[in-house]
Write a structure and sequence with these properties.
This protein is an all-alpha fold. The protein has three helices and no strands. The protein is elongated. It starts with a helix and ends with a helix.
């Protein structure tokens, strides 16, 4: 599936925000959690819009985006 670069960038940004929660607690954790939720909501909205615009199943688009980001993170050349 051919995915727009903006979907990949949004998912990467959300994953980066999620990863920043590690080791935090209290107000720092809650603040970072809000940043992650905002980023996650943005990627979900973009996935939904892309699925609607292309006539693709939303779940299929989401899984393709997640696979693309995870595959790039696992590939040292990527």
């Amino acid at each position: 599936m051919d995915l727009p670069d903006d979907l990949i960038a949004l998912e990467r940004a959300a994953e980066e925000q999620r990863a920043k929660m590690a080791g935090l607690d209290g107000e720092e954790y809650e603040g970072q959690r809000r940043a992650w939720r905002t980023a996650a909501e943005a990627v979900q909205a973009a996935i939904t819009a892309h699925a609607e615009a292309t006539g693709l199943d939303r779940y299929t688009v989401e899984m393709a985006v997640k696979r693309a980001v995870r595959h790039a993170e696992e590939d040292p050349a990527g």
